[in-house]
Specification:
Largest sheet: 9 strands, mixed
Strand content: 15-25%
CATH class of the largest domain: Alpha Beta
CATH architecture of the largest domain: Alpha-Beta Barrel
Shape: globular
Radius of gyration: 23 Å
Bound molecules: ligand LLP
Number of strands: 18
Helix content: 25-40%
CATH superfamily of the largest domain: Alanine racemase
Structural class: alpha/beta
CATH topology of the largest domain: TIM Barrel
Length: about 400
């Protein structure tokens, strides 16, 4: 479980900054990073935080301060990373489905790039030839990840260049003398099983001989974190050991030392985050007791989008008797946060906290129903700092042109 903020700290922040409120705990991010770094110290490894999980500029700066690099999924994330102070050499842009001009911008910025289509690889080759070392994202045709929506390496997936199109990749590389520096795969999110990463490596090892200038094997992100009490995260020590063995077992890898890259998102920031909400209505329908809170799928979409489990607790009534509730939001469509959850008796006005809200929480939030996005605070060195103001009415009108 590691470090956690206490209920008192969560309640105090909610009192000071209001609800709904995203609270992040800096030292938890560090704990997770150090766990990874320690596990992989047996290999030459670099970590690039998948910033799509949470891009608040203060989080990016904190990530930088602990020595981690950053992975981006859009040119704007690249710009945010630069704004946060990362040097281009510590920024990776793993693109998918993008127009070539974004790649040109990324080249101009001097960041590492992974290309995921033959079409962009061809344009890249024509424009840059051998001058700009680049990575290619391979689709290994492996099914992995917590659910289909977050599985990215399988045969039906849009991501990467199918490994079966190796001949086409080779043709382009030969024709334009493209400098292929990296082979990248990312098979999904919520992957507990270390063998999935090993399987991915096996696919890459088969094609490594075709890329003589290769320096880096990038295995993407996807490490699992515990969402339910008692669940286990990916055993990163076991994973590092297995990956080392895979390298050593492979005759080709023996001749050349590849650097290993990872792009963890959830592993670094999921558990650091808490969404604190306030109960607005308790409604007993005879069959279900609904506890409605002042938030919803507009603030945390994961339960409705992926049927993701987020643990919920009533932090206002720790001594209350347990009852079963369905915790819902206040959005004008079904937006359950948790069905049939045992909670200490819930009263209107109580604070309910949703755990694991750091990754893909605020980041996927919206103004649906014209509700405000929550504020975000960062707890660092036992001090709580506001890092994003709550929306206000003008934010709903911002960018709208009132022509009528
Ligand atoms: N690298 C690439 C190329 C990715 O596409 C992703 C995530 C990551 C790294 C980081 O994966 P992580 O370590 O966070 O599992 N919104 C979904 C997850 C979508 C992940 C998209 N790509 C969720 O809330 O579960």
């Amino acid at each position: 479980m590691g470090q956690q903020l206490s209920n008192e700290q969560l309640v105090a922040s909610a009192k000071e900054f209001g609800t709904p409120l995203y609270i992040y705990h800096a030292e938890k991010i560090k704990e997770q990073y150090e766990k990874l770094a320690a596990a992989f110290s047996i290999l030459d490894t670099r970590f690039f935080y998948a910033s799509k999980a949470l891009t608040n500029i203060n989080i990016l700066r904190y990530i930088k301060s602990i020595g981690c690099n950053v992975d981006c999924s859009s040119i704007n994330e690249v710009k945010l990373a630069l704004h946060a102070g990362f040097i281009p050499g510590n920024i990776l842009y793993t693109s998918n489905g993008i127009a070539f001009d974004e790649i040109e911008e990324a080249v101009a910025a001097g960041v590492h790039i992974n290309i995921d289509s033959l079409s962009n690889l061809e344009k890249f080759g024509k424009k840059y030839g051998h001058t700009y070392p680049v990575g290619i994202r391979i689709r290994p045709n492996i099914m992995a990840g917590g659910n289909l929506k977050i599985s990215t390496g399988h045969e039906g997936s849009k991501f990467g260049i199918p490994v079966s199109q190796l001949d086409k990749i080779e043709e382009l590389v030969r024709e334009h003398t493209i400098f292929i520096k990296t082979l990248h795969i990312h098979t999904g999110s919520d992957i507990k099983d270390a063998d999935v990463f090993v399987k991915g490596m096996e696919v890459l090892f088969d094609i490594i001989p075709h890329f003589p200038e290769l320096e880096i094997i990038d295995l993407g992100g996807g490490f699992k974190v515990p969402y339910k009490p008692g669940e286990k995260e990916t055993d990163v020590h076991l994973l590092a050991k297995k990956i080392k063995e895979t390298f050593e077992a492979h005759p080709l890898a023996g001749n050349k030392k590849f650097q290993l890259w990872f792009e963890p998102g959830k592993f670094l920031v999921s558990e650091c985050g808490y969404l604190v909400t306030q109960v607005t209505v308790v409604k007993d329908t005879g069959t279900t007791i609904f506890a409605a809170v002042n938030s919803g799928l507009n603030h945390l979409i994961r339960p409705m989008m992926y049927e993701a489990y987020h643990h919920i607790e009533n932090i206002s009534n720790p001594g209350g008797t347990e009852k079963v509730y369905t915790v819902t939001g206040n959005i004008c469509e079904t937006d359950n946060f948790g069905i049939d959850r045992k909670l200490k008796e819930v009263r209107e006005g109580d604070l309910l906290v949703l755990y694991n809200a750091g990754a893909y929480g605020f980041e996927m939030s919206s103004n649906y129903n014209s509700r405000y996005k929550p504020a975000e605070v960062l707890v660092i060195n036992d001090k709580t700092k506001l890092i994003r103001k709550r929306d206000e009415f003008n934010d709903l009108l911002r960018n709208q042109l009132e022509v009528l």
